[in-house]
Structure formats: structure tokens, C-alpha cells
From TrEMBL:
SUPFAM superfamilies xrefs: NAD(P)-binding Rossmann-fold domains
Name the UniProt record assigns to this protein: Uncharacterized protein YbjT (DUF2867 family)
Pfam family, one: Epimerase
NAD-dependent epimerase/dehydratase domain ranges (all copies): 4-112
UniProt organism field: Lactobacillus colini
Amino acid sequence: MTNIVLLGGSGYIGTNVVKYWRQKDPTAQFYIVSRLGKSEISGENIHNIRADAANFEQTDEKLPSQITYIVDLIGGSEKNPDKFKQLNELPAQTMMKIAEKHHVKAMGFISASIGNKQLVKIKQKIIKMLNTSDIPLAVVTPTVVFGEGHKGRMAAILDIIGIFSKKYKPVTVTEIAGELVNKVVKAGHKRTSLL
């Protein structure tokens, strides 16, 4: 059985990751970790877990013993340095500890390429830290993410700039979800074939 843990999976990108992954593997079990323990998606294979992903022990004790993949979808800007660390670094550390403890096939992470410089810098630092693990890491680095058919003004401007540089091309949330899931599964298959 495929057990997938999503830290912060109840948000906008997380919801789309679950939808895409369910289409790809309808038998997979999803363990969605969030502070509220609720998500918009429901079903027999959806398990909402109320925990602070910044706290390894609290999160790990609520997860199944067998975990196939784990993805960290938590992150964002915050002026308070302690809250910034709690929002970005600590969930990534939790993911790596869980991945290593449960010998998962692969980890997934969402980075950042434009916008808040502090956020871009911390995401790069986190990727370096995650890459010290023996567990394969799949990273997706979106620019501006928008919903299907709902481009904002910034996305429209970046569309034009994106003609000249892919670094600034806006992407749909469906594209990001699909890219992340496919990269995580591919990284997991590579690891399995090496074992």
C-alpha cells in the first residue's frame, strides 16, 4: 500500500497535489498534516491529522509506521525571525527526520525562485540541508502560481516576460501539482531500483 504524508497538504497547492495523485494512484492513502487537522478533500483514503509540522515528535506519533513518500508544502514569508524559522525550516527538518526514520522512497519540496529574497534564500538553504539525506529529494521551483483560468495581473505580466525567460513564466497550480507528484514518484522509483 502506498502511504503519502503531506505536511501542509490542506492548502491551495496541497489540495491540488492530492487531487492529481489520487488520479494517478486511486489506492494511495493520504495523511494530510495541518494545524487544524482539516482539508477540503475527503474520502476513505484521506486521513486529516492535527499536528504542528514544526514539531517532529508530535507529527511522527500520529503517522502510520509505513510511509512511502513525504512532501513538505509548508512555507511563506514572516517578519518575525522565530516565526519565519518555524514556518520554513522546522517543517523541512521534520520531513527529513520522518523520511529517514521510516525509510521513505522519496521526499518532495516546493522551492521559490522569485519574490521575497529572504524566502528564496531560506528555501535554497533548506534544499542544501535536505540533500544531505540519503533519501532522494524532488524539488519544484514555481514562479507565480495561479488557478486554472484565474490569472492575476502579475501572472499576465510574467507571461510576457516568460516568453524571453522561463524563470519568470507563470504556471497553473495543476502544472505544479503534476510536476511535483511525477518528480517524487520518479525519485522513489530510482531509489527502489538501486536497493
